[in-house]
């Protein structure tokens, strides 16, 4: 992978550049909404699974809501955990088949204050910024990892461009999915179906489950290739590729081996991980997010 520089940070952009950036985002949002309407079979509306017939648990995946590193802002961290609790029921009980993929945004809808979402931490334009619904990528990360390990079709997935949370020791690096309404989406579909997705937050953990009519006929093996760190003017950047091998459970035959994710991420040091619009000392930034204190505190 190349050592090309990353995009300019929001703090370095002029008001004119920010306006141009926002115009491009609006165009991308409109394009995705039009595609939803024009090709509903590609992004079907969510549908609940039947109560009976899908009684075999085929997989589960659990993640902690709380960060373990000391750099997390407590107010934005509380907002993230609230947002995940609020979002999880939208995914609980969904019917998914090879012909009925899961679209993160088609399922969840737009995150707004009116819907109850609060300020949490988001990675935006090379900066750590508070945003309504911030931290919701925790759900997308968990859904992507569950789908990848189950051998599902990865129809759309985008990796983060910054690493604000250091990876847990012993985990496969790069198993994440960033989302931005509605044009940066996560879209996955089971290889076998139908299945029922479960999503619950209990005791500080998000737990995802999959139930089907029978045990899966395939298993997956995942590993990282070309993992490296290069120095750039913006700091160290880590890259890798996530490769998956799909194996037939009955025969052991390899059915498929392919790259399901390519990652390129700027690694932030501990001081940078603590700097957000709430603590940043920049006074000329045109992209600063002003967070009403009572709203943040309420998180």
Account of the protein in words:
The model is unreliable at 1-5 (pLDDT under 50). Helices cover 22% and strands 31% of the residues. The termini are far apart. It has six helices and 13 strands. It has helices at residues 15-38, 74-87, 104-108, 137-149, 270-274, 293-298; strands spanning 56-64, 94-96, 102-103, 119-124, 127-132, 153-156, 162-163, 187-189, 195-202, 205-212, 218-232, 235-248, 254-267. The protein has a domain at 46-216 and 268-298. The protein has 299 residues and is an alpha+beta fold. The relative contact order is 0.20.
- Strand line-up across the major sheet: 1-10-9-2
Kindly, what is the distance between the CA atoms of the first and last residues, rounded to a whole number of angstroms? Answer: 40 Å
* Biggest β-sheet strands, sense, barrel: 4 strands, antiparallel
Total E-strand runs: 13
Low-confidence stretches: 1-5
Mean pLDDT: 91
Percent of residues in β-strands: 25-35%
Rg = 20 Å
Q: Provide the structure class.
A: alpha+beta
Q: Give the helix level as a range of percent.
A: 10-25%
- What's the overall geometry? globular
Helix and strand element order: HEHEEHEEHEEEEEEEEHH
Number of helices: 6
In brief:
The chain has 299 residues and is an alpha+beta fold.
Label this structure with key terms:
alpha+beta; 4-stranded antiparallel beta sheet; 6 helices; 13 strands; 22% helix; 31% strand; disordered N terminus
């Amino acid at each position: 992978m190349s050592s090309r520089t990353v995009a300019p940070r929001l703090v370095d952009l002029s008001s004119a550049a920010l306006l141009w950036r926002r115009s491009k985002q609006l165009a991308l949002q409109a394009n995705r909404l039009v595609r939803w309407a024009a090709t509903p079979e590609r992004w079907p509306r969510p549908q609940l699974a039947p109560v009976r017939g899908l009684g075999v648990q085929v997989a589960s995946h659990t993640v902690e809501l709380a960060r373990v590193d000391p750099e997390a802002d407590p107010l934005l961290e509380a907002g993230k955990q609230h947002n995940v609790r609020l979002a999880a029921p939208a995914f609980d009980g969904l019917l998914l088949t090879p012909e009925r993929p899961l679209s993160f945004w088609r399922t969840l809808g737009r995150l707004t204050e009116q819907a109850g979402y609060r300020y949490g931490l988001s990675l935006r334009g090379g900066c750590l910024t508070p945003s309504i619904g911030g931290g919701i990528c925790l759900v997308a990360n968990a859904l992507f990892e569950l789908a990848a390990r189950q051998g599902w079709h990865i129809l759309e997935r985008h990796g983060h461009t910054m690493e604000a949370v250091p990876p847990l020791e012993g985990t496969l690096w790069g198993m994440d999915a960033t989302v931005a309404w509605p044009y940066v989406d996560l879209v996955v579909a089971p290889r076998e179906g139908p299945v029922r997705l479960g999503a619950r937050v209990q005791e500080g953990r998000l737990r995802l489950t999959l139930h089907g009519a029978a045990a899966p006929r395939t298993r997956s093996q995942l590993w990282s290739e070309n993992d490296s760190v290069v120095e750039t003017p913006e700091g160290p950047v880590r890259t890798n590729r996530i490769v998956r091998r799909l194996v037939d459970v009955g025969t052991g035959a390899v059915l498929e081996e392919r790259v399901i994710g390519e990652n390129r991420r700027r690694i932030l040091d501990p001081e940078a991980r603590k700097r957000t619009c709430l603590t940043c000392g920049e006074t000329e930034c045109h992209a600063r997010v002003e967070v009403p204190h009572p709203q943040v505190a309420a998180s």
